[in-house]
Design brief:
Layout: H1 17-28, E1 32-37, E2 43-48
Antiparallel strand pairs: 1-2
Amino acid sequence: MEGIPGQQQSAKRGSGLALIICHEMITAMNGKLWAANNEDGGASFHYRLPAASARDN
């Protein structure tokens, strides 16, 4: 994620709480969450959820 132009970047890192919440929610829905390193730095996060069936509606 790129910073906002003109704003100083902080050396602080997040606690990862949002990622933990996402993982718990996706797992509860029988989905999958994974990350992949980007060649130019950083990471991309991906998820997959099963399609809802007519029975689930």
